[in-house]
Amino acid sequence: MATSSLAATNTTSSGSGSISTIHPDIIETHILSRLDASALASTSCVSSQLHSLIASNESLWTNICNSTWPSTDIPRLRHVISSFPNGPRSFFSDSFTNSDIAASSSPVNLDCPSGLISAVDIYHQHKTVLSKAVLTESFDTSPFRVDLLDPKDSVPTGVGQPVNEDLSRELGERLTLSWILIDPIGRRAMNLSSYKPVTVESRSLSTGEVHVRYGWVFNAGEKGSTTECVRCGISVTCEGSQNQSGEMHVTKVSLELEDMYGKQLSGKDSLVILRKGMAGKRGNVKGREEEGKRRNEDYREMRREKILSEVKKHQGRIDTLYMAFGALIFASLGLVVSRIFMSLFL
Predict the structure, then answer these.
(1) What is the pLDDT of residues 91-133, one digit of tens each?
(2) H/E element holding 120?
(3) Is the CB of residue 288 less than 8 Å from the CB of residue 215?
């Protein structure tokens, strides 16, 4: 409603109905501060005055970033975000959409002197369950993995333990997740999550264990290579509480990168993919959840076909080896038999 009203009042360049007659402080305090990011983007197109007010208002975009992703509301991240080319507005633009490596033509810097920061937020029906930021300093590990929680840590969800598989799947499907990876030196960020789950699996009704998976698939390498497609897989495990409360807790949250065979990439290979992703072109916000699920399904089908193809090749090599071995045995037996006959008649 606010956007429509603003558009209507800007039909003339002067007069009592013009937006220019309203003091900028009133617009910022009573109108712009009440809009979400998509409404702000639409409002900025109404007039040059509004565009200037919105684009230059760093506190406005800081508040939007912090409300959208509570994990960013810590001193270190506020400082990092303020250093982006256009401050929090640039950070929001990077983080609200997903990257496409195939569209990137920018040079990639593989140095990582200060590590990468993960800002993670998990919600249940739009209510924050978990917000946390962690720093990954080393990429020398193999396989590469980022664990958000320590093994003994758990976070209550405020949701009771499901009593059947349908309720378990319903719980998982209502959990949404954002995993923003931030480069504090390169001043770029990208979201690695599909936001909504791509798979939900109820593993145990007795413990209430539910495994929820999110992710984004990059077209990362040459066609036919093991990294033709790479999946950034995010796993969340929820389990029932061991006390009498019966409340579900988030017990594990992790990130891994997988190649076309489902093999986890090393730290260095993962860094190459992540750097390329940050340099990549950002996609359309509309339909990103469906796009994330579609890419995941395509990846799984391509992986299945690739594995079957390798199995057939391997089986063909075995069959060839068996035939060669059989021919060798047959020739050896023939030689032995011929020598026996020769010894009997000579």
Answers:
(1) 998 998 878 775 444 555 556 556 899 999 999 998 999 999 9
(2) strand 116-124
(3) no
Position 174, amino acid: R
What is the rounded end-to-end Cα distance, in angstroms, of the chain? Answer: 111
Residue with tokens 């990092």: 80
How do residues 161-206 score in pLDDT, each as one tens digit?
A: 888 888 888 999 999 999 999 999 989 999 999 999 999 998 887 8
Of 50, 206, 186, 212, nearest to 108 by C-alpha is 186
- Helix extents (H) in 165-263: 165-173
The pTM is what? 0.78
Question: 88 and 95 in contact (C-beta within 8 Å)?
Answer: no
Distance CA 273, CA 260 (A): 14
**CB contact set of 323 (below 8 Å; sequence gap of 6+):** none
**What is the C-alpha to C-alpha distance for residues 340 and 332, in angstroms, rounded to an integer?**
12
Q: Where are the alpha helices (DSSP H) in 178-287?
A: 267-279
Cα(200)–Cα(209) distance, integer angstroms: 11
Pairing of strands 155-160, 127-136: unpaired
